[in-house]
Write a structure and sequence with these properties.
heterodimer; A: Ubiquitin-like (UB roll); 15% strand; B: Aldehyde Oxidoreductase, domain 4; seven-stranded mixed beta sheet; 22 helices
Chain lengths: 163, 795
């Protein structure tokens, strides 16, 4: 499709979930489209394309960012992680298991966004109480769960069972 | 059915257990398959050009330049679509309404902002969107009307003059008794006009469609994000003039529906039409700007409600005349209709009438949304109950309990003939009052507290119809679907069971609940049941998931199919073990003798025998597969009560919901964790509609003011009040296992309980609220209005 576009393509080298990819991308392609359409990583979802809903949240050099607000050329030289990186050898990661145990998902469309946001929180090493977790998760919207199961799951993984 | 009883006696019950969900593993790993994840080789992409005006005549369309752009394959306009397709049919039309056929593209007049006018298919979405920008459409804006009450005024422009002589699409009076007489006799009558705001159901996954056509095979495969694949198949076949056998709708994971994804949308049809004409796969995924204008909206209504009571507070009569907004034309499902069914709520009222009036306006069509008219009417009635209590100097809790139907009075036929099947309505109300320590709160008074805020308590009680009464009920209303569900169970050679259902998966835990019931009735392990949902090429023809109906009908179909499969399995095993079927049980992966468990045979071996026909009794047919259909005998009425405690700043109108307690009864519960998730999720949508969500239209231009996620405020994790849930479990006598529907319950109580709490807190100022959402500004305006002695200020 890109050969029909009039703009010049940009070559990027990006590490995604540990694999190095070298790709030529349209300057107007955003990172979430790049992941989905170029790399086939369809676990990253798209909900608003204006940085509000958080469906496309991924980790860029360890930081949770909204993939729809990043252009693919900006990924050059960076390291990206998506929801597909979490489970190892078919085993759910502790965060994924907690979502399952706590009723943290229903339709599952927002789930990758919450999982990546919570992964960044966990790796930050910050100590957060439930109210702070609630604030931190407010950048991702869920229309199914009412957030309670999500908060409980993240709280459980960040702070252990001693609630 | 004896085998069912046997199964229920022995295994520890799976029904009632929060087993892990079948859906979770794939969704947690990013391996769900949503429609936008599907992209066949050589796919083309569609973009849609939309009318920017609320009401306009299309003067001309100049598309030659766009059609000639590199990478553009086809441009379609309304004239072509009208020639090549039939109008999109309405699944649940308003009774008595004029037929308002609509095509996928407008050709002469557009009746709402966002209505599709042209569609373009190109090599990429970007090129298709660029081509849409290059199409010049000349519009003549026409006089518009946005407000449903204004639309019914004689001076309003008539929006469908070829079929209607006003904007009143239908008027449906129902009821019994002589309420006018009771009103005249009553000691006290309370009445007001209540406005319920327009909202968006806003599933996180936008709509999407991928269409593939093989002309030689005459097969259209349409991947559609929908709650009703089999109904979309019917609508697609009709509109495309195809036989149903030429259409296969495939629905994978759906990222939320809530009523918005009920039926065939214009874009679904357009993608299919392009795919057929271009012989290439065509894909379209809605963007959020389109979603706010072209996916159905919900709720907007004005209820003129009256309650009459005697000096003792006994309700003598209720009347409700309400106007619902249809928008510019029908949605593929139709607008909400249940206000009329539940307008008297859980109360003992003999004389009551209701009239639904449906108005056409120049706004996005209204469709179904979780609750489907029930939150709206509950708001009106329950606010008036509190006002009546204040007028009579009665406690609102006591007044409700006095008028509430008792357990002994059920079943009860309400004024419109709906049958409340069973329950203890008062118990839920007493439970929430006790949980919030109502006595303690009253003793502490309304304040002001040291922080200057006033404290109020608001109650609400409701009944909720779940499921459909019957196919006959639906036929009388012109609905194009049945009240039943259908399920196929097929044994496989691995020793498992494949369960096939047309109910697509959009967060309601249907795969989990169906597998639980199947395993419970059959005896097989829950893990060995695999659910295949949503592909019309593989699943039995069914109705679909809406109206809290899935489990009410589906549980019966699963039960019957599982019982039949079990019976045949036992007969084949009995012949092999040289025992009677009655002596056997299915336990996990084996069939065994109940008395001598060592006499056993693997389930896989029985399945292979049946599937090959080798080694089964001579009088037994080969194969191990059952399809069952089930229609419940009636709709089940869920019910509940809620209490909100708020603290209100009487200077600014700001308020905080300090506690919210809800007690509900959903009958027998199949999966408690899933039920809690449904209730909390629906409550979040209820709080959104009560507090922050409202689609606002600018009066002069008639245009949507807040059609993006940046300025339409869906609750985030930080926005919800603390929620405490209680429940009772009274089995419904009209459904299998005693279940009642649960998906929509939570949308009903937030608005009424919060409004009542705010008015209670500000009772000394005489503040009354009459509209949703309840924003601090509206509370402030109500305070100003009250202090001005009732001069109209509330906006």
């Amino acid at each position: 499709m890109d050969e029909l576009a009039t703009e010049e393509l940009v070559e990027i080298t990006v590490t995604v979930n540990g694999t190095v990819h070298r790709e030529r991308v349209s300057p107007r392609m955003h990172a979430a489209d790049f992941l989905r359409q170029r790399l086939g990583l369809t676990g990253t979802h798209i909900g608003c394309e204006q940085g509000v809903c958080g469906m496309c949240t991924v980790l860029l050099d360890g930081e949770a960012v909204k993939g729809c607000l990043l252009l693919a050329p900006q990924l050059d030289g960076r390291e990206l992680r998506t929801v597909e990186s979490l489970a190892q050898g078919g085993e759910l990661a502790p965060l994924q298991q907690a979502f399952k145990d706590c009723g943290g998902l229903q339709c599952g469309f927002c789930t990758p966004g919450f999982l990546m946001t919570a992964t960044a929180l966990r790796e930050s090493g910050r100590r957060l109480d439930r109210e702070q977790i609630r604030e931190e998760l407010s950048g991702v919207l869920c229309r199914c769960t009412g957030y309670d199961g999500i908060l409980t799951a993240v709280d459980r993984v960040l702070n252990g069972e001693q609630r | 059915m004896s085998s069912v009883e046997v199964a229920e006696q022995q295994a520890p019950s799976l029904i009632g257990s929060s087993v892990p969900r079948k859906e979770d593993d794939r969704l947690l790993q990013g391996d769900g398959r949503f429609t936008d994840d599907v992209e066949p080789a050589r796919s083309l992409h569609m973009a849609v050009g939309r009318c920017p005006f609320p009401h306009a005549r299309i003067e001309s369309i100049e598309a030659a330049e766009a059609a000639a752009m590199p990478g553009v394959h086809q441009v379609l306009t309304g004239v072509e679509v009208e020639a090549r397709t039939e109008p999109i049919s309405v699944l649940r039309p308003v009774p008595g309404a004029a037929d308002l056929p609509f095509y996928a593209l407008a050709s002469e007049v557009c009746v709402f902002e966002g209505q599709p006018v042209v569609s373009v298919v190109a090599e990429s979405r970007q090129l298709a969107e660029d081509a849409v920008e290059a199409i010049w459409i000349d519009y003549e804006p026409l006089a518009h009307v946005s407000d449903p009450i204004a639309a019914l005024a004689p001076e309003a422009p008539v929006l469908h003059p070829e079929r209607m002589d006003s904007n009143l699409l239908a008027s449906n009076p129902q009821g019994r008794g002589e309420p006018e007489k009771r009103l005249a006799e009553a000691v006290v009558v309370v009445e007001d006009s209540f406005r319920i705001g327009r909202v968006s159901p806003l599933p996180m996954e936008p709509r999407a469609v991928v269409a593939e056509w093989r002309p030689g095979a005459r097969e259209l495969i349409a991947h559609v994000s929908t709650q009703v694949p089999h109904l979309v198949r019917m609508q697609l076949a009709e509109s495309l003039r195809l036989g149903e056998s030429e259409v296969r709708v495939v629905t994978g994971d759906v990222g939320g529906g809530f009523g918005l994804k009920l039926g065939l949308y214009p874009e679904d049809l357009l993608a299919c039409l392009h795919a057929i004409e271009l012989r290439r796969p065509v894909k379209w995924t809605e963007d959020r700007v389109e979603h706010f204008r072209a996916s159905t909206h919900a709720r907007e209504a004005v209820h003129d409600f009256r309650i009459a009571a005697d000096a003792e507070g006994r309700f003598l009569a209720m009347t409700d005349t309400y106007v619902t907004d249809l928008g510019g034309q029908n949605s593929p499902f139709g607008s909400a209709q249940l206000s009329s069914i539940v307008f008297t709520g859980p109360y003992r009222v003999e004389d009551a009438t209701v009239e639904r009036r449906v108005a056409v306006t120049n706004k996005t069509p209204i469709g179904a949304y979780r609750g489907y008219g029930q939150p709206e009417v509950n708001f009106a009635r329950e606010l008036l109950v509190d006002r009546l209590a204040r007028r009579l100097g009665r406690d609102p809790l006591e007044l409700r309990l006095q008028n509430m139907l008792s357990e002994e009075e059920l079943p009860w036929k309400n004024a419109v003939g709906a049958l409340y099947d069973s329950g203890d309505y008062g118990r839920c109300l007493r439970m929430v009052a006790e949980r919030i320590d109502y006595g303690g709160l009253r003793a502490a008074g309304r304040g002001p507290r040291p922080d200057g805020r006033y404290v109020g308590v608001g109650f609400t009680s409701f009944v909720e119809r779940t499921g459909y009464a019957s196919a006959r009920f639906l036929a009388n209303r012109g609905s194009r679907f049945g009240a039943h569900e259908s399920v196929t169970l097929r044994a496989n050679r691995s020793g498992g069971i494949d369960l096939y259902t047309g109910v697509s998966t959009f967060g309601q835990s249907n795969e989990t609940a169906f597998a639980q019931i199947c395993a419970e009735v059959h005896g097989i392990d829950y893990a060995a049941v695999r659910v295949h949902a949503g592909d019309t090429g593989a699943t039995p023809l069914n109705t679909g998931a809406f109206a809290s109906r899935t489990l009410i009908a589906g549980s019966g179909a699963v039960r019957e199919a599982a019982a039949a499969l079990r019976a045949k399995t036992l007969r084949i095993a009995a012949a092999r073990l040289e025992l009677e079927p009655d002596a056997l049980e299915i336990a996990g992966d084996v069939v065994r003798c109940r008395e001598q468990p060592q006499r056993a045979i693997g389930l896989a071996e029985i399945h292979v025998a049946a599937i090959t026909g080798q080694g089964i009794p001579g009088d037994e047919e080969p194969g191990l597969e059952v399809t069952a259909h089930f229609e419940p005998s009636a709709a089940a009425f869920a019910y509940g009560s809620a209490a909100a405690v708020v603290a209100v700043d009487a200077e600014t109108g700001e308020f905080e919901i300090e506690r919210f307690v809800m007690a509900h009864d959903s009958g027998r519960i199949v999966n408690p964790r899933a039920v809690e998730g449904q209730v909390r999720g629906a409550l979040a949508q209820g709080f959104g509609a009560a507090l922050s969500e409202e689609l606002r239209y600018e009066e002069d231009s008639g245009q949507l003011l807040n059609g993006t996620m940046l300025d339409y405020f869906v609750p985030t994790a930080s926005d919800l009040p603390p929620i405490e849930l209680l429940h009772t479990e009274v089995p419904s006598p009209v459904t299998p296992f005693g279940v009642r529907g649960v998906g929509e319950t939570g949308t009903i109580p937030p608005g009424a309980s919060i409004a009542n709490a705010v008015c209670d807190a500000l009772a000394e100022f005489g503040v009354e609220i009459s509209s949703l959402p309840i924003t601090p500004e509206r509370v402030w305006r109500a305070l100003r209005e009250a202090s001005n002695g009732g001069e109209g200020l509330e906006g």
